[in-house]
Amino acid sequence: MAWDFETDPEYQEVLDWADEFVREKVEPLDLVWPHRQFVPLEGRRRDAVDPLKDEVRRKGLWATHLGPDLGGQGYGQLKLALLNEILGRSQWAPIVFGCQAPDTGNAEIIAHYGTDEQKERYLRPLLDGELFSSYSMTEPHAGADPTLFTTRAVRDGDDWVINGWKFFSSNAATASFLIVMVVTDPDVSAYQGMSMFLVPTDTPGVEIVRNIGLHGERDNEGSHALIHYDNVRVPHDALLGGEGQAFVIAQTRLGGGRIHHAMRTIGLARKALDMMCERALSRQTQGSRLSDKQFVQGYIADSYAQLLQFRLMVLYTAWEIDKYNDYKKVRKDIAAVKVVMPTVLHDIAWRAMQVHGALGVTNEMPFLGMVTGAAVMGLADGPTEVHKTTVAKQVLRDYRPTEDTWPTEWIPRKREAARAKLAAYLENEVGNL
Ligand SMILES: Cc1cc2nc3c(=O)[nH]c(=O)nc-3n(C[C@H](O)[C@H](O)[C@H](O)COP(=O)(O)OP(=O)(O)OC[C@H]3O[C@@H](n4cnc5c(N)ncnc54)[C@H](O)[C@@H]3O)c2cc1C
């Protein structure tokens, strides 16, 4: 009997340390340098952050998503999930622990598909936390359907020349390099005709036209770039993986990325639930505390149950990834996690905001940021609808149509069969079964 819902005590101690460390030493960074976590460290920020990273390294918690050969601990996804739900409380925590998106996913594909030279040039400094990367796939006219991408790379002698537009390339403004998905052979299906390139951001022709912000961020202070690739010339060895391999690589990348977001979302949703409970116990109205009102109790109970369901689902999926060591085999459950994630965060954050009254909707509390975050989760790494389609297709694979007009579970026929099976016992029965 191998089912076990307990964390081994040794690792629990590590998690307890991480929890206190994040609350005491990392969350202050969120308040002092909000949204600056992807700006390369310098000056006072470096003086403040480097010792924290060193502490994490000494504890053996740096870049735990990677195997020992790549400088991580090789903890696997389940242990990572338990750690990530702590890190999810804070914007800066993933940076301090060396496991921030999108760099984790980018590191993973370079580790999988990169040549030794590419690993030395891009992966090593990425793992050391000394540079950032950007994943440049979505185009202004096409996101959810990559077969519509038109950005092209054409061979010219030993080089490739890239032309086209990309949209929502997160962190491109501060990234040292971009992983760009382009059409290399328009004459075959998109699944065979697209490739990935590693392009240093300072390559001539890489033009960041705008840095788009999410709601509430100021113009051109956002972190999602519209990029014009204008005759960007890269050598042949900038190709990541083989020619035509972009779809396979993208699936490897997005599988890991999606489940890591979900792990951190548990932490963020729990933070909202904690705030809701504290407020409910602290605020009095019409003769009793908010926690005594049945509506508010309903908010708390629903939120607790939603979070528990989601957490178990994420931990189970993480366990499956460790077991099969193959994202493809766990595709259905990763997609299902991705589908429920925005709703869980939205619902819990929204209720917590409501319980805080007017204060809840101000910029003195974090709830509207969480609600925006939930909306973002319904789009980033693919829209919810597309993931629902994936879940449904995968679920349907385990079923076959009935040959008959009547469903397999049609009671009259089943009853007839049951009566035939139990005929010996029914001989003396009176009336209908
Ligand atoms: C915060 C954030 C960060 C991002 N970071 C990156 C990044 O770093 N790199 C990158 O390349 N991209 C990034 N993206 C882009 C993201 O991957 C796309 O937004 C996403 O794939 C959807 O594409 P789209 O926005 O073009 O929407 P569209 O493809 O235009 O879809 C719009 C809507 O149409 C509906 N829809 C689409 N397809 C279907 C379908 N098959 N069935 C039913 N309904 C459908 C859905 O409601 C969907 O939301 C980011 C997005 C956000 C919000």
TrEMBL record:
InterPro entries per record: Acyl-CoA_dehydrogenase, Acyl-CoA_Oxase/DH_mid-dom, Acyl-CoA_Oxase/DH_mid-dom_sf, AcylCo_DH-like_C, AcylCo_DH/oxidase_C, AcylCoA_DH/ox_N, AcylCoA_DH/ox_N_sf, AcylCoA_DH/oxidase_NM_dom_sf
Keyword terms of this UniProt record: FAD, Flavoprotein, Oxidoreductase
Cofactor names: FAD
Residue stretches making up the Acyl-CoA oxidase/dehydrogenase middle domain: 135-221
Residue ranges constituting the Acyl-CoA dehydrogenase/oxidase N-terminal domain according to the UniProt record: 9-130
Residue ranges of every copy of the Acyl-CoA dehydrogenase/oxidase C-terminal domain listed in the record: 247-396
Highest taxon above the source species: Bacteria
Subunit structure: Homodimer.
Family the entry assigns: Belongs to the acyl-CoA dehydrogenase family.
Protein name: Acyl-CoA dehydrogenase family protein
